[in-house]
Structures are given as C-alpha cells and as structure tokens.
Amino acid sequence: MADKELWISLQNLNLGLERSPLKISNDAKNRRDAEHRLSLVVQGLHPSQNPAGIKVIMPKIWKLEGRVTSRINDDGSVQFFFKHEHQLLTVLDNGPWTYKDWLVVVDRWTRRNYPDFLRIIRFWVKILNLPDDSKSDSVIREVGGVLGHVDEVHIQQPSADQVGEVRVRVPIDVDDRLLFARYFNLDDSRPPVLIRFVYDKLRRFCSTCGGLNHLSTHCNFQAQETEHLQLPPPIHVHIAHHMVDQPHTPTEGADDTMGETVGSNLNMEVSENQDQNASQGEDMEFTHPREVQDTVNATFEVQEMGAGSVSGQNRGTKRKVNDSADAEQASTSNKRTQGEIDIMFLVETKNKDHYVQKLDMYITEGQSTFCLTYVYGNPERKSRQYMWQKIENLVRGGLYQSKPKVVLGDFNEIKNNQEKLGGPPRPEWQFLNFRRMLNVSGLHEIKTFGGIFTWIGNRSVGTIQSKLDRVVATAEWKDKFPKARVQLLDWVGSDHKPLLLFTDDNKWRGMKLFRYDNRWRNNRELQLALQNTWDQKCKMLPPQEFQEALKKCRNNISSWKSEHINNSHQKIQRLHEALQKAYNSHSLDFNYITSLKQKLQQEYKSEEEYWRTKSRVLWMQAGDKNTKYFHAKTKQRRSYNRITALEDDDGNVQQSDKDIQNIIRSYFTNLYSSSGSENLDLVLQHIQPKVTTVMNQQLTAPVTEEEIFHALAQMNVDKAPGPDGLTAGTLFPSYSCNEHKCYSWLQS
After folding, report:
1. Mean pLDDT of 602-625
2. Which CATH number applies to 358-502: 3.40.190.10, 1.25.40.10, 3.60.10.10, 3.40.50.1370?
C-alpha cells in the first residue's frame, strides 16, 4: 500500500514547472481547428443525464444516427463531429434539446473561449393573451425583453391550417430562473394585462423557482410574497381540481407506449361565470378559447414536474365522456348555419356507461342508396385493435359489398407518423392493423380542406397534433359522388375539429375529351383508314405543319370511332347472343361457331386490356386483368384525377372552373417568375463553365434517325397523352410505315 502511495506521489511531482511555457505551432493549431470546426459540445444540466446516454441518444433524436461521430470529454461533456455544416446548423436551429426530459446545452466548439460557452439555451417562447392591437414588432420585443434579449420575433397570422400565435427567440442562461407570467400596462386607459409565456420543448424544471437543473423537491429558494394586483373578474378554467378529483372513465389506460396518449389530455370545464367559492385547485386566466390549450401547457407542466407527484393516470387521456357542470352553466354562441345539414353526429357524450362505437345507416338519395357508417375508436389501443379486426371480419364475410359505403368519425388512430406533429415517432407496427382494415375494406381518403390535423393536445412531451378524425369511402361511393369533399372547421369548444362532408352537386360536368385507345392499334380496319389519311392528306404537308398532320389523323380516328361500336362489353353481349342462336339452330354451322368463339376470345382480351390500361397497374404483368381489383383501381383513379376544388392563398375553397383556373395560373406564374436577375451576367462571369466545347458540339448536333426511333420505342404507349389525346402508341405505328417522312418532320 505504501509503495502505491509513493508511486502516486512521484507521478505528481512539479519538476519542470519553473520553465517557460511552450508554444504550439500554428500548423498544429490549424489542424486542430479544422478537425473541430464542425463539432458541437453537449452538456447535461441534471446529474441523471449520464454522458454515455447522451452520446448514444442524441444522434437518434437529431435523426443523424450513423452520420455523426462522438466522444466523451474529460469534463463530462459530449462532443459530436459532423460531416456537413448544414446538419450542424439544423441541430442548433431546431433546439432546445432534451435528454431524459431534462434540457441539455448545445454549443459550437468554436465558441469555447466565449464567457457564455455552454451556458446559453435559445428558447422559442410563445406569448399568450397579447391583444391584437399590440401585436407589433416593437411591443413584442419589449414584452419578450423581460425574459432577456430578443433575437427573433415570429408573428403567425391565423389561417385555415394554422392557429395565430406570437413567438420570440430568447437566449436564457442556464442558471437564470424562468418567468412564466407578468402584468403589463399596455394602455393607460385600460387595466393591466396578464401576459403568459410558454417555453417550447420545456419538460422538467423547478415549479418553485423556475430553475432548469433541479425539481421543486430539491429547491432551497423561498419566494417572497407580493401583493396581488386587483383586476376585474377573469374567465376561469378549472384544471388542477378536475385533474385530481374528477372521476376517470374506463378509457384512461390509453395508448401510452411512446410517452404520449391518444386524444384529449384533460377534462376541462369552461365557465362564463367566476366561481367565487373555489377553494381547491388553481384558476388559470385566459382571454380567448384558442388559448386554452396553451394555458394548460404551463399549468400541466407544473403539475407533473415533481417526481412521483402526479400518478400516471392523472396525465389524462382522450375522454369518452365529459363530467362537466350542470346544464345551467353551459353557454353557446349564436348558431350560424350555411345551408341545411342532413345528418349530424355529436361525438362528445355525457353518458359514462354507454356510448356509440359504430353506427350503420342506409341513405337513399334519388335512385341511389349507400351505407353511412359512424366510427368512434376506443382510446385504449387493445380495444381499438379489436374493433379494426371486427370490421375486417365483417368485410371479409361479405357485408356492405352490395352498396357503396362511406365511413366517418373519430378513429383515434393515424396511418403513419406523417399524420402526427410533435412528440416522439411511433413504431411502424402500431399502424399496421388500421391500414390493413382500410385496405381490406377498400376505403380511401376523401379530399379534405382546412388543414391536415384534426386534434390538438398537450402531453408531457409537448404539444401534439394528429389526424384522428377522417372521412373515407369506397371507390363505388366516390364514383357516385365525384365532387364530394370534406371541410375541417375551426377548433372552438373541443380539442377536435368538426368535419363537414359535402355531397351536393354529384354530377360531373367536365368536358369530354378525345382519348386514343391503345386497343385500336391492333385493329386492321383502323390501320388502313389511318394509312389512307396519311397518304392522301399528310404526305404533301411541309415539316413545319407536323401538328396539322397529327390533327388530321386524330379527326380520322374520331370519325372511325363514332361509326363503330368500341365498347367491348356490348360486343361480348352481342357475341354471346349470336353464339346461343348458332347452337340453338337446327343445322349447326361449326365454322360459324368457331369464328364467333375466336371473336369472343379477342373481345375478352380487348376488355382485359381496357381495364389494365385505365387502372395503370404496372406491377402485375401476368394473370387476369378483368377483376374487381382493376375495376376499383380505375374508379379510384377517376376520382383522384378530377380537380373539383382548390384552396387559394387566403384559405378559401374555390369550386368554379374559372376560379380553379385562376389559382393554377397564379401558382405557376409565381413559381416560374424570376427576380433578382439584374446582375446575372456579373455573377456568371465568375462561374467556371462545366460544359466543354466537345460536349456542346455533341449536344447541339442534329438528331439522328436512330435516336428518334429509340426515343419513340422507349415511350410507354399507355401513358402521357398530349392535349390532342394522342399517345406514343398512335405515332409509333405511323412512324414505322412512314419513317422517312416522320424523321424529317421530327428533326425539324
């Protein structure tokens, strides 16, 4: 033991300490700086954030796993090395970041000599309750200035897709105490306004002092009591009381496997009258119903910050029922209706024990009848999966196959992570049963306007938006109502957006266009007629009138089409009748019967070719193409290819053909408009050309006949018809018969 202590003492000798410091060469410094220039240093704020965990988890959170390298420094920080600067800047811009729900400090290695290195976290802070007339840059900077220096100001105007909000970017020292509310005298003639601050991505902190590195259970700070400023009675939202004392429904065990629950997070009561006798819980003030969720964020965090202070059940789930107050306390705004609503589903219910999960009804409109199904997905994932399986079994058993079907409601489920904003991504296996149910049922989304997400709520991981509500329909239903659309209304009294399904004006009044049918390329009669037109009317045309030659060919095909029956289904019926008459005749003519069978076989192939072409299914090369699958794909394409409505820049849905044309024209005009090209020549003269003289000669050389032939041969004969309705399948046979004439035309 003594030898070991002696050895340690010898290692700690100060021999050489009196000599002058050695200077590292500039070359070594430059190499070090170059190696560390694209690196970030990450430091945890809480002892539970071990460096090894930060080293493994942070690249996954940044979605850069496998694209960054890292090491643990001697001071406990973790340094990450990036290959590209844009990835490093993206990480800095998208902060702040958390590990184990505690914030981490992220800073560039190049700032290591700055006094605030690894001490600053740049928060995006949402400002609530700010009056509309005060939402100016100067006022917002003064309000946000109580938190620190305001780097950026973001004012989001309300639209159909997004909620209006005011945010500021503020750098805050890790040792400072957070501020969540402050009174401001915005106008001398008005009482002070309580402004609240909501910090983006803030998870755990001290609810007593606002510190970022400890909980309230370990806080030694004692707040000084200040006299409360007297204000007029505000509108109250009773939250804490209901979180603790309100009875929970059987659906509280929601899908919480990824740290988030499905659906609403709190049972809130909004009362128009102030409760003067409230003795339990906290009252939170708000000025607008849209700010309720933001206000909940601050209080909800305070309720959960302490370890073990709130049980898992009290985190809240989407409710089946709502234990609200008596009916006398409820109030509604004046109803404003546009048109008449035929059927309305009120999803929210006050019945604790019985509620509708699935409701089927048959709707008759004129001569058509379809099935309308309302669905409510259970917040419990296990019960919800059982429901999808039950619907799938009913479909496989043949139910609903006789009628077109539309399904709507609160499914409480999403199809993928693209239908979700905020919170950690969910694993792919959680979506499989829901997607399989939709595929087996043949249900497809109906075009929706007014945004993507239908539900908004707060979880321990922050604000989450999801597409829990939707309207889906079969191809038969969409074929009956080609102009159907869904409008998402605004969030008002619920955390769900109401869905409004429009089915009026179900007749498609589009202009019927000429389309070349590739089945005609095997018709000998049409080939001869086309050849005659080519020789008689197109042969003497100059190369500059190639479009005129195509127009004459199209007119010839159109005339031939109007004179002949081209519907394979009608031809098959006529051949069946002729074949039955031939078999029923007293003297059988087997040559005639054989001829009818050959024609029938040819028409079967022609009909199969029709469905293959219209469905655009390319993955199935062999087998029967005249099946329900190809029929459904064709109907689905028809509904997708019809532009029935477009949303303009102001969020208004336009349906008239003229308005749709104006939106499309305006979009592409702005897209292809050029700006800032005054000094283009000055910029181009400093750019090294990439196209050499030899390459330029090859690119500008005349097109050869072989190149034209190969270009036509590689075109898909079923796709990309031009404005004249002709595909490559029309031109290629003509090119084969008149290749020299076509060559001169196409070359010109």
Report:
1. 69
2. 3.60.10.10
